[in-house]
Design goal:
alpha/beta, 22 helices, single chain, four-stranded parallel sheet, 436 residues, 4 domains
């Protein structure tokens, strides 16, 4: 048995070795039970083991072990809650990365169904789909914009994307196109407080460019110069979370090259989507490694994290004159993949500068990358999200904000109103209008 989360380790893709490690970790988790509330994977695991009088995790079948793997959607919260993580305890327990190892072993051995392969291809090729869909945005949005429609049911049958889910519409213009055409603000050297390379993410590039536009406006208002390095692609999370390491590494290498050059040119990397930020900070180092991956990781910030760093820096601060509309109270959904970065609630802190009172809701949306969009996971996903919706209802605020666009889509689906990204909230508070 090998306790390793290193994909370069000679035993990493050995299934016999993996099964023994799953038994070790399942036994430890069963004895602890601290993470019972995060997802269905843990209750399923506990139920499987509890049915044996001796409660021996070694008696689980491979199929039962795999069901626990299937129900883990990589929210990462059990990792930050676990007292036995690598570097802090001799047990070296990292449940999310062990689940990814198990998924990757199955893919490497070809033990996934044709349907799963089609799903992975459909979700993984974000740039190919995004470029085509922006060109045909009105038609694509008409075909995919109504849950339960004939076209959505056809999509569910062919590529396994749930017909029930609200999918983010495509913009008519890509963020990068807007960025190239814009007139950049002139920032003299004595006014500069920073310089950033924006990692736009698929969501901002193809679906919600307004978030990127608001980020640029907020940064430039505060003396932060913005660049958009050419050659960046999808972060690769859909490939990684589906177990396809090879495709993930190929995407990662492209981004590492582009972003490392940007960092050496004097930029920090700023990301507006939590999953992508986590991938750049954590997964590129684990699955690619090397000085450039570490350089990118050490200079990558969530957008609000970076702005608060400027606000609390030596000799730097943000403009706190907010002349736009600022509601008295708001609710803020703190996404799992942002909490897993362990940087604190920087979006909350940023929005509090406007004078609004922020109620934090830290429950999972059940989307986590693309897991919750898959047809076979919808019921589990919505069950997980029920606590989030209940907490938002309990808070009772008309305005809801959240950093994760996919989680915001889940909230829209359940509550009928889409949350606003914190960067857009701050832009409106400054009085910066949305672009038509």
């Amino acid at each position: 048995m090998t306790t390793t989360y290193d994909p370069f380790h000679p035993k990493y893709f050995d299934e016999v070795d993996l099964r023994e490690e799953l038994t070790r970790v399942y036994d430890l988790c069963h004895g602890c039970r601290l993470c019972f509330k995060y997802c269905t994977a843990f209750p399923t695991l506990f139920e499987f083991v509890d049915r044996f009088d001796d409660q021996d995790a070694a008696r689980l079948t491979p199929a039962e072990q795999d069901q626990v793997v299937d129900e883990c959607f990589q929210c990462k919260l059990c990792y930050i809650n676990c007292p036995y993580i690598p570097g802090k305890h001799e047990w070296d327990l990292d449940f999310p990365r062990l689940m990814m190892r198990a998924e990757q072993v199955r893919v490497r051995k070809g033990e996934v169904s044709t349907r799963e392969k089609v799903q992975t291809q459909a979700l993984g090729r974000q740039d190919l789909r995004g470029k085509a869909s922006v060109r045909l945005a009105p038609l694509v949005n008409k075909l995919t914009g109504t849950p339960g429609s004939f076209s959505r049911r056809a999509m569910e049958k062919t590529v396994g994307i749930s017909a029930q889910r609200i999918l983010p519409p495509y913009a008519r213009q890509r963020f990068s196109t807007w960025f190239r055409k814009r007139v950049a603000a002139f920032l003299p050297a004595d006014r500069r407080q920073g310089q950033v390379a924006i990692f736009s993410t698929c969501m901002v590039e193809y679906n919600e460019p307004q978030i990127g536009k608001d980020l640029v406006a907020v940064c430039e208002r505060n003396g932060i110069a913005c660049n958009l390095p050419e050659g960046q692609v999808c972060c690769g999370a859909p490939w990684l979370h589906s177990g396809d390491v090879d495709h993930f590494v190929a995407e990662a290498r492209k981004n590492i090259t582009v972003l490392a050059d940007a960092v050496r040119a004097g930029n920090d990397v700023v990301v507006t989507q939590p999953t992508c930020g986590y991938v750049l900070k954590k997964d590129y180092v684990d699955y690619v490694g090397g000085p450039d991956a570490e350089l990118v990781a050490s200079h990558t910030y969530d957008a609000a994290e970076y702005l608060m760093k400027v606000h609390k820096g030596e000799g730097t601060s943000l403009d706190t004159e907010f002349t736009g509309e600022v509601p008295e109270k708001i609710s803020y959904h703190a996404p799992c993949h942002l909490r897993a970065q362990e940087v604190g609630l920087k979006s909350r802190d940023l929005m509090k500068l406007t004078g609004t009172k922020v109620t934090v809701v830290a429950e999972c949306s059940g989307i986590d990358g693309a897991w919750g969009l898959k047809e076979q996971n919808v019921e589990m996903s919505r069950k997980v999200a029920r606590k989030l919706m209940n907490e938002l209802d309990k808070a009772g605020n008309d305005v809801v904000t959240g950093d994760c666009s996919l989680a915001n889509g889940a909230i829209l689906e359940e509550r009928g109103a889409k949350p606003q990204h914190p960067i857009s909230f701050v832009a409106r508070a400054y009085g910066i209008p949305e672009e038509p």
